[in-house]
Write a structure and sequence with these properties.
26 strands; Formyltetrahydrofolate synthetase, domain 3; 3 domains
Length: 557
């Protein structure tokens, strides 16, 4: 089998203006970045599209992730190609990949096999420069904070209570904790700080939740960067930083248009962390896509307990989006791991382990039902799968009243996803969705967190020490009590123990700290150790990446 990059390189892409014309976008609204990628001017929404009805919104999510892989992005791309293959007007909205994972352990994030978005190397590396703009915007605010303190500190910012770090779009564990301002009085005030990876920046979350440029500036201005010596919050607008930061993001805020291997349109825009933030592509690209296509496929990071819950309770709550269907991705290998099989034995047929692992699948199906959106299970087909294993998953789904389809998009592209696409379109067109969020804004922050833990994670309760409980109370006292909760915990388990697979229940969810994202307008509840600056593995993926004698990039996957 050819590698992903070999398949991508053999594709025959159409010029991006041709892809845009398929959507009815004329060249006047395009800003070209070469032949095969461009940005779309959001003014088209106001000038051409505002009176058009929205298409159907389809969320792709997955069971709890395992080292075996689930293929959520690959399935998303395959589904769009499948919808177009059966004659539907469809497009996809995805997050942009971060450079850190590309050079680290995960590799690229543009799909795989014959279900990819292209140009694959561009998307996985610098693309249109959005992440660089977001990093520069974040670090401008960092510089303005230290500059303000250096000169006269009129806002009385307490250097010990600054919560705003710096960012870089790379995995670099040495930058997690730093001391800055050393070297004498001319170099600022010495203080402890650190770096996060760019995708963990609140600027990224704000960028992806803002519906327009004015709201983007308002949200940036509302970011709380730290506290005064009297413990009052200090906002970015008090530093007069919001205008300049918005200027840095103006061009990046326009959605990026590319295409799949089968020349179907794709927006790839924004990419917030799925742990510390909401893990979804931008609201502006999703809303624009709904005006341009009859079916829009998007995805949310990690499994449904994190990704789908945040998509519903944060992105949809804030934007007014209402999904029409959910596709829940599973693989036989991942289900075997949830059934207790080690990675070394996944290629052996084991129907009992698949059946046992379906407990994880069932919990996710049950959870999605709480949001009032119909769900279909997609088995992401592997060549090592057996008919008996597939039958076990299909029968499990049948017994609980859920449709299940096998999809071979990785091997066959859109044709291999045609059966899945037919059923997804049927569900989306049925108008059976009665979308609702999980909890009401008026609930206390503690009660919201507890409700998520008990109703999504199967927990008995949440636990926290007095310091954390006081953080909840202070946030409510400061006026942030109606914000939704963004849970930050391991993606590998319903519990906070990454080794506890399957569908555990009755456990406690310990809360380590609470963080305010006042610009993004959500409260981050940190459960366990959450890494906002990853490190590189012993053998990073970068060791296999190079440029050959023909000038082609090799080794991306």
């Amino acid at each position: 089998m050819k590698t992903d990059i070999e398949i991508a390189r053999e594709a025959e892409p159409k010029r991006i203006d041709t892809i845009a014309s398929q959507l009815g976008i004329s060249d006047e609204y395009l800003e070209h970045y070469g032949k095969f990628k461009c940005k779309v001017d959001l003014s088209i929404n106001l000038e051409k599209l505002k009176d058009l009805s929205d298409g159907k919104l389809i969320l792709v999510t997955a069971i709890s992730p395992t080292p075996a892989g689930e293929g959520k992005t690959t399935t998303s791309v395959g589904l769009v190609d499948g919808l177009c293959h059966i004659g539907k007007k469809a497009m996809i909205c995805l997050r942009e990949p971060s450079l850190g994972p590309c050079f680290g352990m995960k590799g690229g994030a543009a799909g795989g096999g014959y279900a990819q978005v292209i140009p694959m190397t561009d998307i996985n590396l610098h693309f249109t420069g959005d992440f660089h703009a977001i990093g520069a915007a974040h670090n401008l605010l960092s510089a303005l904070i230290d500059n303000h303190i250096h000169w006269d500190n009129q806002l009385n910012i307490d250097p010990r209570r600054i919560t705003w770090k710096r960012v870089v779009d790379m995995n670099d564990r040495s930058l997690r904790d730093i001391t800055c301002g050393l070297g004498g009085t001319g170099n600022g005030i010495p203080r402890q700080s650190g770096f996060d990876i760019t995708v963990a920046s609140e600027i990224m979350a704000v960028f992806c939740l803002a519906p327009d440029i004015d709201d983007l500036q308002k949200r940036i201005g509302n970011i709380v960067i730290g506290y005064t010596r009297s413990n009052e919050p200090v906002r970015a607008k008090q530093l007069k930083a919001d205008g300049a930061i918005t200027a840095l993001l103006k061009d990046a805020f326009q959605p990026n248009l590319v295409q799949t291997l089968e020349n179907n349109p794709a927006f790839i825009h924004g990419g917030p962390f799925a742990n510390i933030a909401h893990g979804c592509n931008s609201v502006v690209s999703t809303k624009l896509a709904l005006k341009l296509a009859d079916y829009v496929v998007t995805e949310a990071g990690f499994g449904a307990d994190l990704g789908a819950e945040k998509f519903f309770d944060i992105k949809c709550r804030k934007s007014g989006l209402k999904p029409d269907a959910v596709v829940l991705v599973a693989t036989t290998k991942a289900l075997k791991m949830h059934g207790g099989i080690t990675k070394d034995n996944l290629y052996l047929e084991n129907v009992d382990a698949v059946t046992m692992g379906c407990k994880n699948l069932g919990r996710h199906i049950e959870n999605i039902g709480k949001f009032g959106v119909p769900v279909i299970v997609a088995i992401n087909d592997y060549v090592t799968d057996t008919e008996s294993e597939h039958a076990a998953i299909i029968n499990y789904c049948k017994n609980i009243g859920v449709q299940c389809k096998i999809s071979s998009h990785w091997e066959k592209g859109g044709e291999g996803a045609a059966d899945l696409a037919e059923e997804v379109a049927k569900i989306a067109d049925s108008n059976s969705a009665e979308f609702k969020t999980l909890y009401d804004n008026k609930m206390s922050l503690w009660d919201k967190t507890q409700y998520i833990a008990q109703n999504i994670y199967g927990a008995a309760d949440i636990i926290a020490d007095k310091k954390v409980r006081n953080q909840f109370k202070k946030l409510e006292d400061d006026g942030f009590g109606e914000y939704p909760i963004c849970m930050a915990k391991t993606q590998y388990s319903f519990s906070t123990d990454p080794l506890l697979m399957g569908a555990p229940s009755g456990h406690d969810v310990p809360i380590r700290e609470v963080r305010l994202s006042a610009g993004a307008e959500f409260i981050v509840v940190v459960c366990g150790e959450v890494m906002t600056m990853p490190g590189l593995p012993k053998i990073p993926a970068s060791e296999n990446i190079n440029v050959d004698d023909k000038g082609l990039i090799q080794g991306l996957f």
